[in-house]
Design brief:
Radius of gyration of chain A: 23 Å
Structural class of chain B: alpha/beta
Largest interface: A-B, 22 and 24 residues
Strand content of chain A: under 5%
Number of domains of chain B: 2
CATH class of the largest domain in chain A: Mainly Alpha
Number of strands of chain A: 0
Strand order of the largest sheet of chain B: 6-7-8-3-9-10
CATH superfamily of the largest domain in chain A: MetI-like
Helix content of chain B: 25-40%
Order of helices and strands of chain A: HHHHHHHHHHH
Number of helices of chain B: 9
Oligomer: heterodimer
Helix content of chain A: over 70%
Structural class of chain A: mainly alpha
CATH class of the largest domain in chain B: Alpha Beta
Distance between the termini of chain B: 32 Å
CATH architecture of the largest domain in chain A: Orthogonal Bundle
Shape of chain B: globular
Order of helices and strands of chain B: EEEHEEEHHHHEHEHEEHH
Radius of gyration of chain B: 18 Å
Bound molecules: adenosine-5'-triphosphate, magnesium ion
Chain lengths: ~270, ~250
Amino acid sequence: MRAGHDRAAPGVTWAHLGLAWLVRRGLVVAGAVLLWQVIASGADNPFFPPPSRIASAAAQLWLSPLLVTNVLPSLARLLGGWVIAGMAGTVLGIGLGRSRMVADYLEFVLAFLRTLPPPLLVPVFMVLCGIGPTMEVTTITFGAVWPVLLNTMDGAKSVDPVTTDTARVFRVSRTRWVLGVVLPTALPKVFAGLRTSLSIALILMVISELAGSTSGIGFQLAITQGQLDLPAMWSWIILVGLLGSVLNQGLVLAERRVLAWHHERVGAR
Amino acid sequence: MSIVEVTDLGHTYGTGRAAHTALGGLSFTVDPGELVCIVGPSGCGKSTLLRCVAGLLRPSVGSVSYRGETVTAVPADLAVVFQDYGRSLLPWRTVAGNVEFPLRDRGLSAAERAARVAEALSWVGLADAAGRRPWQLSGGMQQRVCIARALAYRPAVMLMDEPFASVDAQTRADLEDLVLKLRAEADMTVLVVTHDIDESVYLADRVVVLSRSPATVVETLKVDLAGPRDQIGTRGSEAFVRLRTEVARLIRR
Ligand SMILES: Nc1ncnc2c1ncn2[C@@H]1O[C@H](COP(=O)(O)OP(=O)(O)OP(=O)(O)O)[C@@H](O)[C@H]1O
Ligand SMILES: [Mg+2]
């Protein structure tokens, strides 16, 4: 409630503050790029191109039809796999988190499965599903589901016993109990899981496309590397970074909306 | 016939060396429309008793019957105001949303629900706080939200566990009178746990005094005060003073 509103001095609007923040961030980035430019130009190594050359390559590439024909499939696989993982992880996590017995037996197995490095899955699913979007989406789903699943389980377990008693006394229906009590209790944890799984999904998207695909950012990375077209390769890498931060920022904004009560409450303490 | 009947109720938490007996075999009854207060030393097992009566906890020995039937689950027309009021409210719902929550599955229209919520909140003096979140309220206000939630549910039997512990003296007096008024109007049966001796005598038709842990019934006192209760008149009356002295003596024993 309070936090934020009185932070701005009189006469300073939010737009001003946002601008100031952007300018400060922009200066840091500009400084880093400048440093890179100086070092790379000095090194004069064809395998270490300066940002100016990458920028011109990127401008060329990103204006070409290659952008759409590769980014769209990648994005579809990434979001497809991640959304399936998010939904499956949330549903399974709530189910497992609320049934003590199952969770006790499965805890160990789940902890083990999670410690497996997700890229290991690529060859497994390549054999199982063949090369193509099914393999990529399956790999992403399977690798990204764990953080959501385990976090949701944790969150679902943490419903306060008094809250449980309250729901029992007022004979709240099963659906309302799950959707109206357990899910909101677990939601902060669900979002924490979703953030981790988004970065895993991005990694797996690139890796699975590198390994076997006929389109996508990872595929282009492999091609440009093969052609030793390093500025173009770098521009794809930068694109992956941009994609990751845009998606992450979107998720953070969604979380702020959905969990407004949670952030206000933590902030009010 | 009594509406609540507690027979030789005993409860032990845990087993083996960690076992702790909270209720040591106690019996009492509550008649329909009656207001019974339970007083006893801190930690003697009052909340445990209330959880057994509500059907939230299966007692180790003895039984609770509700309208003549043994309690195995929470009865349909029973509400509880929990001692841990803060943990009983949902932080993602507004005050009004919390009061409305139990009404959702009762087949009421949105308008009926809204009317009941508004009424209950105005009873406890929180009409202005309807849109706020529980964690933005003081302890006493949260406690009143819990009372409003139970009242909006329109139960036949209401169990209250230290319901006025965190409110100031004036609000407390108002809430006591509110409970008395609603009890008379709606013909509600009320069971109040309190550690406040004066409050127990002021509210109750009967006071059940419990012993130190494991709780047993020391004595059940009938409170026969003349006329309707009145914060100043009743509390100053000779009969009141005599009764509160009696309860205090029984607790100290
Ligand atoms: N879940 C539990 N597991 C083990 N022991 C418990 C549990 N709940 C309560 N107890 C113990 O049982 C005894 C009675 O607890 P209870 O909460 O019923 O007391 P109370 O009379 O309500 O206390 P207060 O006046 O402080 O509210 C206490 O000694 C307590 O430590
Ligand atoms: Mg208690």
